[in-house]
Each structure stands twice: as C-alpha cells, then as structure tokens.
Amino acid sequence: MPRIKTCVEAIYEGVGRVNSRIPGLPVSEVLLVRLLMLTAGALLREFEDKLKPYGLNDSDFRTLMMLYSSEDGTGTPGELCLLADQKPTNMTRIANALAKRDLISRSHATHDRRQVVLRITPAGRRFVAKMLPPMFPSLVESFACFSAAERKTFERLLKKLALHIDPLVDPDATS
Fold it and tell me: The HTH marR-type domain covers which part of the protein (predicted)?
C-alpha cells in the first residue's frame, strides 16, 4: 500500500479516536490541517528530490526564483527573508551559496550604501531557464486528479485560507 494512503487512513482513524475521547473536537478543521500538512510535506520532499541534481534546496530555489521573477531581478535580503519565510542568518547562507555559484551577485544600493542588493546574474537566468522546464511534467501530474475548474477552485480556496489565517498566525501582519 502506498505510504501516503497509509498515512491518510491513520489520520482519519486517529482523529476518530480523539473525537470519541474529547468532546467538541473540530474534526473537519483537524482533518483539513493534517491533510494539508501531509500533502505539503509529500510535495516538498518530491520537489527537493528534483532540486538535488541542481545542488539546490527549497529555500535556495525560492530565493533564486524571487529574484528571477522580480521586475528588475533584484531584492534586498530583508525583502527576501520576508517572502521566502527565512531568518536573516539563513538568508546570508542562501545568498552566499547562490553567489558562490555565480547565480546571483551582491552590491550596495545607490541610495544607501549600507543596504545590500542581491541581483540575479545572466548565468542565474540561464540556470533557471534550463532547470525549470524539466520539472513541469511532474508538477502537472501532481494535480492531474483535478479538472481545470477544480484546480481553479482549489487555488481560490487555498488563497482565501492563506489570507484569512495571516492575521491569526502573524498579528503584526498588515493587509
């Protein structure tokens, strides 16, 4: 039996037992959280396996992609920490690793020499253009169980959840 199927069955059985022992358990919400975490973990493991041959992990990849997708190919470590959900120390490690491979460069902002600016290099752009397309088929296959309409609905619902929980998980967050 596939491992995830076994985990899904165990989640339902375990939540059922807890529900019988603790009155008022929000069963639906507990199941949603557990299933989201299980699914996200499985997708992340699969994704990191795809990144290994390129010498990247998820946080390195997300940082590189944020620079690649930014309008001018730049970002500050502080901005990238926020968007990649990383601590400054880890962002330093990520920037060092990407710079060592000539995927990004560091410079100082012209308006404030104290501010560091990270920029994707031409080699970094070529690297992304080469590594990304081979990942598309397995990504598409991961969601092949949904119709196009279901994917759109799922995206809309996940976005709605993310925006709803933002102030709950980060009371300082602004809208």
Answer: 29-163
Same domain, 68 and 107: yes
- Which residue from 135, 127, 133, 130 is spatially nearest to 97, judged by alpha carbons? 127
Q: Are 106 and 117 in contact (CB under 8 A)?
A: yes
- Residues 136-149 have pLDDT tens digits of 999 999 999 999 99
Residue 70 sits in the same domain as residue 127: yes
Q: What is the DSSP string of 82-133?
A: HHHT--HHHHHHHHHHHHHTTSEEEEE-SS-TTSEEEEE-HHHHHHHHHHSG
- Domain with 84 in it: 58-131
What are 13-23's pLDDT values in tens digits? 999 999 999 99
Do 102 and 119 share a structural domain?
yes
User: Model's pTM, two decimal places?
Assistant: 0.85
Q: Which helix or strand (DSSP H or E) is residue 156 part of?
A: helix 148-169
> How far is 23 from 48, CA to CA, in rounded Å?
40
Q: State whether 65 and 5 are in the same domain.
A: no
Nearest to 67 by CA among 139, 135, 125, 110: 125
Q: Is residue 90 part of a domain?
A: yes
